[in-house]
Amino acid sequence: MAQSPSLTSRPLDFIYTVFFAFHIPITLLLDLNAIYPPEFAPAVLTNVHKWYMEFSQDPLMVGMASGKGANELIWFRSFLWMELLFQIPTFVLGIRGLSKNSPKIYPLLCLYGASTATTTLPCLLHVTKAFYDGALTDMQFGILISGYIPFLLIPLVMAIDMALRLHKLASMAIVAQGNGTQKAKKA
């Protein structure tokens, strides 16, 4: 049995794996802080979250902290719950599947990529609107955009890449099925 190519010899898989590994602490320590019950959030997490909001003035996180998450930002609150319930498990499974070079992970990563790119776009647009409304300085906008864009582009590339990989596997299966049918007819 041929040995699978190493993760470092598969550049996109390597990038996706590093992205997932990097995303886990960001999600747990920063993003989900907006939905943690205050009585359960350790002071260090609360302090990091407060610092981030003061530093960046991220209108989504500031809005959640002000209580807008119950009404005006309910859509963003739902995205945070998706991060907790869908994305965190996907990060772990993705790291495992990619490190094993398993094609079984492709459907999940295709779904993750499409879902995440789709949910990141409105966040990016919300931040952009806040900038044009004068709620953010040029520096704050630059920091936020540089933070949000990778979380749009990498999942988008992943969705396209995984869809192409799935298409290739399906095409190979169709060819193999056709060859099997022809062999059965000859016999």
From TrEMBL:
UniProt keyword terms in alphabetical order: Endoplasmic reticulum, Membrane, Transmembrane, Transmembrane helix
Pfam families the record matches: EBP
Protein name per its UniProtKB record: Efficient mitochondria targeting-associated protein 19
TM segment ranges: 12-30, 74-93, 105-127, 139-164
Secretion signal span: none
Family: Belongs to the TMEM97/sigma-2 receptor family.
UniProt KW 4Fe-4S keyword: no
PROSITE patterns: EXPERA
Organism for this UniProt entry: Marasmius crinis-equi
Its membrane topology: Multi-pass membrane protein
Record InterPro entries: EXPERA, Sigma-2_receptor-like, Sigma2_recept
Location, primary (coarse class): endoplasmic reticulum
Domain EXPERA: 12-159
Subcellular location: Endoplasmic reticulum membrane
Tagged with keyword RNA-binding: no
